[in-house]
Each structure stands twice: as C-alpha cells, then as structure tokens.
Amino acid sequence: MTSTFPNISISTERLVLRPLDEDDVPSLAAMMNDEQVAAWTDVPQPYTEDGARGWITEYAPTERTAGRGLDLAVTEFLTQRLVGIIQLTRTNWHIRATELSYIIAPWARGEGYASEAALATSQWLFGDQKFERIEIRTAADNTASQQVAQKIGCISEGVLRNACIVHARTEDGTWVDVRSDFIVWSLLPEDLDGVGEELADSGGFTSFSDWN
User: pTM (2 decimals)?
Assistant: First the structure.
C-alpha cells in the first residue's frame, strides 16, 4: 500500500500552509513569472494561468495521491495572500526521507517567510510524520536559498558537480540554460534542537531574499 501525505494545514505565528486551491491561480502565475524564479527553477516561462491551474488541479493532487510528494500554499495569516510555495518531492517512505524546496513571491521577499515555512514543514515532518531525513538542493550560486537552509539548521553534505541547470538572460531577452553544481543539504530531527528558539532570540525570521 502506498503511503501518502495527508491534506493538512500548518500554522505559524505569521503564516498558514495549506493545500493549493483554484483561487490561487492568478497569484501563483504571477509569482512564477518572476525573473529569479525563472533563473533558479525549471518553471516554464512565460508561466500562464492555465499552467498554474494544471499544477493545482492535476499535478499536485496526483503527486500527493501517488505518495511522491506534497505541494503547499504559503499564505499570510492576517491577509490570506499567497506569499509562496513549499514543495516536497522524491519522497521515500521506506527510509522516511523527502526533498524540500521553496519559492517566495517577489513582493514578500526579505521577510524570512521561506525559513519560517520550511522550519514549520520540517517540524511537522519529523513530529507528526516520523520522517528521519529532509534534503534541500541549492544551485551553487543561489546564496539566498543557501541562507534559508543554514538558518533552519541544515548541514551541507557536499557538491553534486554539474548536476543542475540554471538559466540566464541573453542580450535579446531570451533565456538560456547554464550548467551548474548542486549543493546538497540535509536536515535530521536532532538538527532542529534549539533552532526555533535561536530564531526567536535573534528577532525572528528576517534579513534576506529567499527562493529556491
């Protein structure tokens, strides 16, 4: 029998993480058309509302039902605005491990939302779901994403050489593929000891633009 993630909602001081719904289509499409999202991810460009609707109504439910992963909308608690996405992929239920990634909307960067959402998701995975390993992969030059991994307690395990494709603008405005390295980060249950308290003591989740 295939294990699957439940349809859940996770709340933090500032955020609610919940399943994507069709009301998110315009905000999701706008977020995915950002230059930094285009540079660091394989999201198709330009990203259409039809693409967003397909993700929400077809891709995300299929991935969850098949046990491969989970896609969560990250929303502001007070305004309900979509500030980003948390995605779990390549889930291995036998060893209780999954890969975590995050994207934050341009207008919401610099508020620490990625680290807050990633930490809450990790705490839920280790606590309620009894997972034993979370992996994050960041492009070698994506320092903002690496700061998120470091802030939630991840340990850098090494480099996968030439394992990543990022994207750069040409003079005529088109995107071209650029080969890069992946930095592999891991998070184990014991790595979270004291992380929440340290973030609170330092004044919360602040300081850098975050995306993956």
Answer: 0.90
